[in-house]
Fold each of these.
Amino acid sequence: MYLKRLLPNFSRPFSSASIVALLSGIFMLPAHADILISPQRVVLNDTNRQGIISLHNPGKVTRAYSLKWVERRLTEDGQLIFLKEGENPSSITSMVRYSPRRVVLEPGQTQTVRLDYRPPADLKSGEYRSHLRIGMEPLPNQSNGGDINLGDQAGMSFRLEALMSFTVPVFVRHGEGAATVKISAVEPTMIKRDGSTSEPGLIVTLTRAGEFGAYGRLVVYQQMNANSPVELIGLTEGVSIYAELSSLKRELLLKPGTQLPPGSWVRIAYEGEGSERGQVFAERAFQIGK
């Protein structure tokens, strides 16, 4: 049994180059974006009541965007769904103000959106959340966004003008609280990559307790046998489990060509990102087929 050898090796930090190489094998980043948004998640609390979101236009044409609050809920299978007005009991729209509400970005220009958290006196301890929607608006005599060519038929050309929108989750954490997360189940499975060939993957179930949610990345390591090195085979970033969820199930796509033979050891770690960076929420090691 080589689990004792495997676990110390897992604690070794991996270089940035190995992380980039793994990510490039799992997915391709788009070559063009109409807007760059940073950060993609904001956390406000009793000691940090102001926040900023930077919007940058990397393109060659002027773009306009409107901003407004929307409510979304995270399901146990990791899907974000929109809620109707009044359906989110943890909404922050009455306690967080933002400005401006509309921006026009020239090519290469950056605009800062400022957030200001003002808690009411009777606010109960806990985590609250809404999403800030950043939606593209049409400008006069200009294409509305991404043009989608639908082809030609009977001498006519069809094009669809797409108005894109993005949502940034904004969290308020009031009072003293924490999140306890466990990796309660791991199941090997086959996942289709880009809708084509099925390759080995993992279905991971996280369980959460406490007043706050958690945010991080799932990192997967593998050791084939006692004489083989520990390898990084999977990395899924931006994994959230909101405070209203007690469990979350995610499919993890592994590095292309990864095999999970019986007897090999796998370790999964849920590591904090953003304001939780440096924290290891949970980890689990297991042997395939055991």
Amino acid sequence: MQQNRARYLIFFQYLGSKYSGVMKSPAHQPAEGVQNHLENAVRRLKPLNEVSVSISSRTDTGVHALCNSAHLDILRKADKPPFAEKVLTEALNFFLKPEPIRITRVYRVASDFHARYRAISRTYVYRLATGVSHHSEMPIMEKDLCWALRDTELDISAMQEAGTILSGTHDFSTFRALSSDTPFKDPVKTMELVQVQPGLSFSQRHFHRDIQFWELSFKSRSFLYRQVRRMTGALVAVGQGKLSVRQIQELLDARDSLAYPQNMAAPSCGLILTNVEYKDLDLMPYTQD
């Protein structure tokens, strides 16, 4: 029997607080991953193939995304044409409705397209809040969306100077957390952007407390495990005077994960994946393979 198979690139966003991360969690684990819910939504479409959603960019427990991406295949009977992109977007969002997960865009792509390997850059933003003496002073709308630094003033110019040290191509071994993948991952990465700048907040504008928001932005083709949180923690330590700019260079030069100071990595709650970028050619209207 002839069948219709189509591959799609989906862009999606989520609030990560309730999930074990973006990747699928095993059945025995109480907290589910975002991927579990995406695959369940696809199954509701009753495809003929086994459902598998291939995520482009891993995020950990508590990390959010305004823009993550994945590819998936949907196989239908010959008398049912492939889903149109808009129809698939609306259908998946209907089945995801109870969850803080949304499909923002869908593209039909070539059968050999791979969401992870075709991505040309990823951008993360880490949000900080200063001017807070107790966690109860944070507006409720910012809950789990930033790192509130209690009783802290930051030397922003020192953080920006330290950021320039991390920019460019380096061995970032010191700034990765050890994992089972460590021996197989090249620690040399190119940071296209390391930026510290004032942040914006709806609650800051309309809720009259002396809270200042800051955004640390990082852009690269790919990142090492927990690299952004460890770079953020080190930059915040510079802003607090706990590390010098020179010590950031020394950490980078050490090329040793164990050289990174204990308990310095930033928590997950302020980290947001804001963009996964592809070549324009990959997002052109689909033509038959």
Amino acid sequence: MNEIIHFTKAEGAQNDFVIVDDRSGNLSDDTRRHFAQLTAHSRKGVGSDGCIFIDTSDTHDFTMSFYNPDGSVGSMCGNGGRCAALYAVQNGIAGQQMSFDVLGRSYRAAVEGNNVRLSFPAPVVIEHDIPLQCGDEHCTVDFIDTGAPHVLLFSDQLPASMHGAYDELDMSHIGTSLRWHTRFAPRGANVNVLERDGEEIRIRTLEKGVEGETEACGTGTLAAGMSAHLRYGIPSPITLRTHGDDVLSVHFSPHGDSKSDPSYFERDLVLEGPAHLVYEGCIQLRDA
């Protein structure tokens, strides 16, 4: 295998991605999976939290296809979507106001400089205050599917054995115990631990597909904003600080009385924050 593929490295709140324009449709699914695994490796490849392929669409400006570092096809990626929108503007694929498709769901984005506002459809599922058995202990979590499945809990909701200073929490232990919990089988879920810090919500995320903590997670941040509203009644916009110390904001216009109904968040649901195209390069595919 000696195929050479051109790519762009991008980051949104230090969530980093490799983006490939494949509107020509030259890359097979197997090639994409191999490329995603290769480029995710920080020493053998580029280093990334996932790979984005820009495909054609008959109904939108483009289609975004996301692959996890393990080569699996991913669900919606919020910061990846913001990076894809910036890439589309800077490469003449779309104007500053655009729409794109991810797995049959429609997303809109507005790009102004390096600030990208990504509008989401209503969440697929909202479940608030779910009691879970975690080994010999109990905890209470939220489950919100924003196009990607997320388990969310505040640090004071952790089982006693997992308590600790927020910056020193063992996200690998916490994350894996909930990521594979039977309640969320067989698909599994991303796991987010939140903490209220004055006017901000802090967020740490263990992402499935990466199988580790990332500096930020866009769909997790969106879900965290909704979870913070459900628990504390914090109004929009909600400011969230990522593990990488970047700031993202979540906007929404509450609709209706039932907060467990996804339509409650269907109006003006937006994830906003910085994104950058870092550099361009080429990589030669090779056998693992």
Amino acid sequence: MKYSIYPGCSSEGTAISYHHSTLEVAKVLGLELREIEDWNCCGSTVSSSVIGQFAADVLSARNLALAEKMGTEDVVATCSSCYTNLGCVNKKFANEKFKNAANDALSKDDLSYDGKLKVRNILDVMVTDIGLEQIASKVTKPLTGLKVAGYVGCQTVRALREFDNWEQPTFLDNIVSALGAEPVNFPYKLKCCTGIMNATAPDITASAVYPILKSAQEAGADIIVTPCPLCQMNLDAYQVKVNKNFSTKYNLPVLFFTQLMAIAYGLDRKQAALDYCIVSPNNALKQWV
């Protein structure tokens, strides 16, 4: 199976562990992920309010145009925000007025895009294309006894509503089960973590993260896994602030689901990119790593 992968800005910073573990897991599963050459920011976070919505859309469109030059493979994003931005802009190309205006802007870079590619989230690809049976067949270290809170976040399945159930999502929990672990009953799996608001209102972020961590711990989770870089960063990095603000003692490791897959596939801690975690997963995963 071949795909064009859009890494996104977070893959070079806060979510480097997501990108790295995804590439390692892809090798095990026989996925060919070809990185889009010369990709740029998808226009996520605050760019539309700074440079305008159309300019931000063209940023995403440029990535799609570059992917189209590489072939007709689906474009896969690991980041939920990147997936949402690329997917939304891709849909806008069905509007001839937008398509013409965007292609006029893209022509300044000797590019054009016809809107025919499909934008996918890596979680969707794993379950829909690879399949749970194939995912389970590659497990060499079953995660038996590990209790996992699958934190989908508010954007991954809800923004475009193209895969999974956006009110009762199961894809993430099903992968956890395929790896031999136990997905816990986690009512806050779709709760918003405030995303990039952490940069301007960290106390609000801490207030949003607190009930998510509380829900996971009360469910008996040993770790939390997520498919979203902002979710991972907020739940991982803000536990110290949550503990300070709410007099708690949370110490829940927060991993990307591809890191959990890497562990179950017997890959080493470097391949699973475990050393990028702020809250150490060493104790929770000592049986397997």
